[in-house]
């Protein structure tokens, strides 16, 4: 396996057709049962709620397991269909992810909802598989369900060696070799696999990123079996121009419906970048309730774009979520978890909705 940076001499006119014709692994994976409403309706947007994992991993204080469980439960009840529930990473490196096994065992498992967990390596996957093999029937309300704690993992790499070395102590090529084995075993066990590529715009250690590298790493993830690859502006320095330029390169060579956008709001560009991605054909966006987040390996990066802000930004537009999501309930969750963490609510929409409620109370 390689991550060569050979330059494409010309734009591929029909990315999906060309990729499927020349990459059997892409064709095989596309035929799997991972189709979403986004495939049937071009205006449906899937939102991956990453608050319980990516949102909490950079918190300084310890977040009790019961708070994590309650956060996931509230998000599911509010209509979120994909909720990243935790990470099977060593607590030595990311202390806030300690107790993920307890969290995904105790949380509600709602029908039709996916609860992916991040798995950094084979050890993490083995720990997850051990838990899944020991899982028995789980109660949801008054019913008994056999819904497993999760049916999906997420794996991650980066677009630069500098970031990969800081994050996982290996180069991008080395990480891809490790992840190929993890992906193969996970799929053999019936798990869906989603990929992340970090620092797709700018790396905090090596500067501006070569978008061809983003393209090549994303292709590697798709070919090894990821059903989708999320492109992360980890530092949050991207703007519509740079995000658009990156997507021109990546989506110009790979099936756009198998790409997702993951934007941080460091410079207040999260929503603008998300809308740019939608206009480029992306139909899956990662976001975090209350704008929770940051990155322990990207100094200065602030939280993910807020779920509330994304939901509000597509209201009254041609876009809609695949299932009805209660914006007011999501905003309330943003305030609830922000207060639990003793932090400011970073969602502009959440703050506006609360201010409106307070005005209405005074007027009543």
UniProtKB/TrEMBL annotation:
The entry's keywords: Lyase, Metal-binding
Alphabetized CDD domains for the sequence: DRE_TIM_HMGL
Record-level GO BP terms: ketone body biosynthetic process; L-leucine catabolic process
InterPro entries in the record: Aldolase_TIM (IPR013785), HMGL (IPR043594), PYR_CT (IPR000891)
EC numbers on record: 4.1.3.4
One of the record's GO molecular function terms: hydroxymethylglutaryl-CoA lyase activity
Every Pyruvate carboxyltransferase domain range: 45-331
Catalysed reaction, written as an equation: (3S)-3-hydroxy-3-methylglutaryl-CoA = acetoacetate + acetyl-CoA
Keyword Metal-binding carried by entry: yes
Pathway it works in: Metabolic intermediate metabolism; (S)-3-hydroxy-3-methylglutaryl-CoA degradation; acetoacetate from (S)-3-hydroxy-3-methylglutaryl-CoA: step 1/1
Alphabetical list of SUPFAM superfamilies matching this protein: Aldolase
Superkingdom of the source species: Eukaryota
Keyword Lyase listed: yes
Stretch forming the signal peptide: none
PANTHER family: HYDROXYMETHYLGLUTARYL-COA LYASE (PTHR42738)
Similarity remark: Belongs to the HMG-CoA lyase family.
Protein name: hydroxymethylglutaryl-CoA lyase
Taxonomic source organism: Gloeophyllum trabeum (strain ATCC 11539 / FP-39264 / Madison 617)
Lineage of the organism: Eukaryota, Fungi, Dikarya, Basidiomycota, Agaricomycotina
């Amino acid at each position: 396996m390689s991550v060569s940076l050979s330059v494409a001499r010309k734009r591929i006119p029909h990315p999906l057709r060309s990729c499927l014709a020349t990459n059997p692994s892409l064709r095989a994976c596309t035929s799997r049962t991972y189709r979403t409403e986004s495939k049937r309706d071009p205006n449906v947007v899937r939102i991956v709620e990453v608050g319980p994992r990516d949102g909490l991993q950079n918190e300084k204080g310890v977040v009790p397991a019961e708070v994590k469980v309650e956060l996931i439960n509230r998000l599911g009840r509010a209509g979120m269909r994909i909720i990243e529930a935790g990470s099977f990473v060593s607590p030595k490196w990311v202390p806030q992810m300690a107790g993920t096994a307890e969290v995904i065992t105790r949380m509600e498992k709602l029908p039709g909802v996916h609860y992916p967990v991040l798995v950094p390596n084979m050890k993490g996957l083995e720990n997850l598989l051990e838990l899944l093999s020991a899982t028995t029937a789980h109660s949801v309300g008054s019913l008994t369900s056999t819904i497993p704690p999760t049916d999906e993992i997420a794996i991650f790499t980066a677009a630069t060696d500098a970031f990969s070395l800081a994050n996982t102590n290996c180069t991008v090529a080395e990480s891809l070799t490790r992840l190929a084995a993890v992906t193969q075993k996970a799929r053999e066990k019936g798990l869906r696999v989603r990929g992340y590529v970090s620092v797709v715009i700018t790396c905090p250690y090596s500067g501006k990123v070569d978008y061809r590298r983003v393209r090549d790493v994303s292709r590697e993830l798709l070919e090894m079996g990821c059903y989708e690859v999320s492109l992360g502006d980890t530092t949050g320095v991207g703007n519509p121009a740079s995000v658009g330029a990156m997507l021109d390169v990546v989506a110009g060579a790979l099936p756009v419906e198998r790409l997702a956008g993951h934007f941080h709001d460091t410079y207040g560009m999260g929503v603008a970048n998300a809308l740019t991605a939608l206009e480029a054909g992306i139909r899956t966006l990662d976001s975090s309730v209350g704008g929770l987040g940051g990155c322990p390996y990207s100094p200065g990066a602030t939280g993910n774009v807020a779920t509330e802000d994304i939901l509000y930004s597509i209201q009254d537009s041609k876009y809609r979520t695949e299932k009805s999501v209660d914006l007011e309930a999501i905003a309330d969750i943003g305030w609830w978890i922000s207060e639990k963490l003793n932090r400011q609510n970073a969602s502009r929409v959440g703050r506006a909705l609360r201010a409106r409620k307070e005005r209405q109370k005074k007027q009543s």
